[in-house]
Amino acid sequence: MEGSLRELAGYRLARAKEMLTASQSNLEIGQYKTSLNRSYYAVFTRCVLQMH
Known about the structure:
The chain is mostly helical. It has one domain. The chain is built from two helices and no strands. Helix 1 runs antiparallel to helix 2. The longest helix has 27 residues.
């Protein structure tokens, strides 16, 4: 069970990093709301993972 939790955490962290990269791209083309949404998701995910 512990291994699967670590794998899930790794997956979520990788996904959060993807969202942060996408957020930067959205910001560069002026999609501010989308950028903010993706940034929030990335930060939220990182915070949740830190708590565990």
